[in-house]
Amino acid sequence: xxxxxxxxxxxxxxxxxxxxxxxxxxxxxxxxxxxxxxxxxxxxxxxxxxxxxxxxxxxxxxxxxxxxxxxxxxxxxxxxxxxxxxxxxxxxxxxxxxxxxxxxxxxxxxxxxxxxxxxxxxxxxxxxxxxxxxxxxxxxxxxxxxxxxxxxxxxxxxxxxxxxxxxxxxxxxxxxxxxxxxxxxxxxxxxxxxxxxxxxxxxxxxxxxxxxxxxxxxxxxxxxxxxxxxxxxxxxxxxxxxxxxxxxxxxxxxxxxxxxxxxxxxxxxxxxxxxxxxxxxxxxxxxxxxxxxxxxxxxxxxxxxxxxxxxxxxxxxxxxxxxxxxxxxxxxxxxxxxxxxxxxxxxxxxxxxxxxxxxxxx
Length: 362
Fold this sequence. Notes:
The chain has 362 residues and is an alpha+beta fold. The protein has one domain: paralog of FGE (formylglycine-generating enzyme) (Alpha-Beta Complex), CATH 3.90.1580.10. It contains twelve helices and 13 strands. It has helices at residues 2-20, 39-42, 58-61, 71-79, 85-98, 114-117, 149-158, 167-170, 183-197, 206-213, 238-245, 287-290, and strands at residues 51-52, 100-103, 106-110, 133-137, 140-143, 201-202, 229-230, 275-282, 305-310, 325-327, 332-334, 340-342, 354-356. The strands form five sheets. It has a four-stranded antiparallel beta sheet with strand order 2-5-13-6. The protein has a three-stranded antiparallel beta sheet with strand order 8-9-10. A two-stranded parallel sheet has the order 1-7. A hairpin with a 5-residue loop joins strand 11 (332-334) and strand 12. The longest helix has 19 residues, at 2-20. The model is unreliable at 1-20 (pLDDT under 50).
């Protein structure tokens, strides 16, 4: 019975893909949005990024208002659970295109720019970002939000896969929070979205992620609305994030609904915090030194994938726009027998997708 149910779903998916776009056809990028946020011109990187309200008394933190997700966004996400699989896929296609932010290509100095920006101390404690070299990226589009379980479930249901985040009876998942997934699952989601929409969706390269987090490569140390950390206004205080997340799911990195806080000047939400995001790149310590100057794709192989953004439980800090972190494609954890086993998917990084105008590495 289960086999026939999965086969039925796969037939539906095949039909959807077949009608998306003829093989070999060139996507019509002119149909995609190219309007840029006015904040790109209005908001400039702070000369010396700061952290505000970091030492706010606990009693004051507890009085901070709990932000609410925009009602239209909540409704759109919850609606993805309703209807037939064909209807749900159609709604996801529409939402994915509507959520795109145009990222005009250009050149920028990738890496820890503290020295050339006149900022006193290095922005990260790492050495793998200290080769600051100009690179140039082509135009691309990026999803303004981290992908939620409501969206990822459409993919897993349509392709007959097991839903992610279902361990411990689903205590680590909620439709409105960022979905946890292993790297290949995240990659497959974006490629599948490309199949059903006819656009070349993929995971972002590490260079694309940083360029977008820094609002087209400007000297923004953190991807908040003004380049500073202002706890309680553009970023949750640690105590506040714990209170918010406990209302939705039990995850180690305190995930809560997307878009509770303002986006960066480019218009992208939650890039400064609220769990790591997978990129397409294999990690290499010397990647910045050896990378191509035009649309770098990262190393051709490796053991770990680059993850970006930041995790609330680490404490929010400046420098998250440029700080490189890594995870193996299937994150591991130690069990009670001290053996390494695959970690729960709900504690794995999340994702957001891009549409490329140049071929990405598969």
